[in-house]
Amino acid sequence: MSQSKVIGFVGLGQMGGPMASNITAGGADIIVYDKAGTAERAPEGAKLANSFESVLNSADTVFLSVPDGPVSLALAKEIAASKDRRATVIVDLSTIGPEAAREANEILSAAGVTYIDAPVSGGQAGAKAGTITVMWGGPKPVMDEHEDVLKSFSKNVFHCGDDPGQGQAVKVLNNYLSAIAMSATSEAVLYGLSQGIDMKTMLDVVNVSTGQNTATADKFPKRVLTETFDAGFKTKLLTKDVNLFMRNAKAAGTPVTLASTLAAIWNGADATLPDSDFTRIYEYIREKG
After folding, report:
1. Which of 20, 189, 271, 288 is most buried, taking the most CB atoms under 10 A from its CB?
2. Structural domain ending residue among the three candidates 163, 194, 222
3. For the domain that residue 258 is a member of, what is the CATH number?
4. pLDDT tens-digit map of 90-112
């Protein structure tokens, strides 16, 4: 993407802030905004906007990093209603589910704006390191036009399809698998502990064997074994993603036998451990018995 283009970034939370910082470090001309407070969250070197409308009027492409579908859809309606916007491309990095992405696309397409469904994975650590994965649902030529800015905050950019909703489909199935890994690993480790086996020993064995997964390789050694529980991703957000998978798999008519059980586990954890880090699912499963 030409450096003469201005990038807007809206949503400077745990994921958005580091991504915006990497875009800034990459040399892009960027203007940022966060409803919760821009000045204290903005990366050094970025221009500060005093409203969402100001971003729309100043940037050619606007990246969104917001919590859920209702927020994305509210912003899509605001973009469509904007009279003086400069922005012609919206890249939504949020996890909102396929249905919401398709609805946002309908709203913005009718207003002459290109909407890209581009959720990310890799957690807060990946956002800071610039190694997150982007799952692009939208025209590939638009992805290619934004190659430089995408590479500034992502190590892996995948074109998942030409239609908004396809990136979301890959994201929710990915997070479903992540939630399965955390839950199953919690039960497996608790069984091992009941047999008098050291947790680190279990993890060392599994991680060079066929049971290895993202939980055994990363979350348990770094967050559970250390009892820091600080992966930087909330239980409520992964619970939202599991429920998104359930709802969309049901709508598609694909199997949800495991997903039904998993959703019950995560909904219970979210209710029991409000505002917790998702790695505390281990404690929930341990206490639940």
Report:
1. 20
2. 163
3. 1.10.1040.10
4. 999 999 999 999 999 999 999 99
CB 248 within 8 A of CB 169: yes
Asked if 171 is an active-site residue, the reply is yes
Amino acid at 173: L
- pLDDT for the residue numbered 2: 47
C-alpha 97/C-alpha 67 separation (Å) is 11
Q: Is the pLDDT of residue 1 over 80?
A: no
| Rounded Cα–Cα distance for residues 198 and 190 (Å) | 10
Domain that holds residue 64: 6-163
- The answer to whether residues 13 and 152 belong to one domain is yes
Average of per-residue pLDDT across 267-277: 97
Residue 152: give its domain's CATH number. 3.40.50.720
Q: Are residues 158 and 175 in the same domain?
A: no
What pLDDT, in 10s, does the model give residues 206-225?
999 999 999 999 999 999 99
Active-site position among 171, 234, 236, 240: 171
Q: For the residues of 248-281, what is the DSSP string, one character each?
A: HHHHHT---HHHHHHHHHHHHHHHHSTT-BGGGH
pLDDT of residue 289: 76
